[in-house]
Design brief:
The structure is a single chain. The protein is 44% helix and 18% strand. It has helices at residues 9-13, 17-25, 75-90, 138-142, 161-172, 181-188, 194-200, 205-208, 212-238, 243-250, 254-266, 270-278, and strands spanning 31-36, 48-55, 59-70, 94-102, 113-118, 121-126, 128-131. The strands form two sheets. A five-stranded mixed β-sheet has the order 1-2-3-4-7, with helices on both faces. It has a two-stranded antiparallel ribbon with strand order 5-6. α9 (212-238) packs parallel to α11 (254-266). It starts with 8 loop residues before the first helix and ends with a helix.
Length: 279
């Protein structure tokens, strides 16, 4: 059975690190020197990859890659925190990039900066945003970008059977890439019927369950189910729920939603619930 790292972010970027850093920075002269540790004390995530890069113009610098299955409202703050931690640890300028794999709910707007003002002081962090569903699938084959091969089905124009088969053939032709077939199948299942996916490629659920992508999908499913149930209870008790309340529930984890469910049952008005939601 493959380990998590075999089909995680670090494994994918390490397939062709030069091509990757050139793509995310949009600078063809940049080269990758080393993939660094991205664990900062108590913080460790499978989706963060820190690459030490170099260009003749800028010298050594860091490329902070955050591959996020779906964008959340917490991402701007996370990008600010991780950028600062990386720069402090390695003492190098840092270029942060957020790669969103699947579109977020319509209630969320993707932003490319964090900004806060408190008592006259401002905190600002810009970062580059790449939404994979906006990327043309053809560039994966043309550049080439082997790190993006498993994501071909969800790229723009990548959901056609012929394009998925082309990505599959490319994976199978390279011993370094063929273990990524299960991940390609996983993302193909978002755009093609499952029987069709099973027909054109191997479907190894044992490998997929070890993938951080699969685990995050499972967790998101539980989270969204809890959120829908909470909204349903609020609607049954208090009628139509304001859109801003639904938006504020979007970023809550399962434990928080369960606590809020207890509050939704106990409170006597929606205003009382909103006060609890604000604390």
């Amino acid at each position: 059975m493959a380990k998590v790292a075999d089909i995680g972010s670090k494994r994918l970027i390490n397939l062709a690190p030069d091509a990757w850093v050139q793509w995310v920075t949009q600078r063809p002269e940049v080269v990758a020197k080393e993939i660094l540790g991205s664990e900062f004390q108590w913080i460790s995530r499978e989706t963060d990859v820190l690459v030490k890069a170099y260009s003749a113009t800028h010298g050594d610098f860091l490329v902070l890659n955050e591959l996020q299955l779906r964008y959340t409202a917490q991402m701007p703050l996370r990008m600010r925190a991780y950028t600062a931690l990386a720069q402090e640890r390695y003492r190098l300028p840092t270029y942060p990039v957020l790669i969103n794999i699947l579109p977020p709910p319509p209630t969320l707007t993707i932003v490319n900066s964090y900004e806060q003002e408190f008592l006259g002081l401002r905190a600002i962090q810009d970062y580059r945003v790449i939404n994979l569903w906006e990327i043309d699938a053809e560039i994966v084959f043309q550049q080439p970008l082997p790190s993006l091969l498993p994501f071909v089905p969800i790229l723009r124009g990548g959901g056609e059977v012929s394009v998925v088969q082309r990505a599959l053939q490319t994976l199978r032709a390279d011993a370094q890439l063929n273990q990524l077939e299960s991940l390609l199948a996983f993302f193909a299942s978002f755009v093609l019927d499952t029987p069709l996916v099973q027909q054109i490629m191997r479907w190894d659920m044992a490998v997929l369950r070890e993938s951080p992508w699969y685990q995050e999908i499972e967790q998101r499913g539980i989270q969204q189910g809890a959120r829908r149930q909470l909204i349903r209870v609020l609607e049954q008790r208090f009628g139509e729920i304001p859109h801003e309340v639904e938006v504020r529930l979007e970023g809550k984890n399962v434990e928080q939603l369960e606590t809020l469910m207890d509050s939704a049952i106990a409170v006597s008005s929606l205003d009382e619930f909103v006060v609890i939601l604000s604390t």
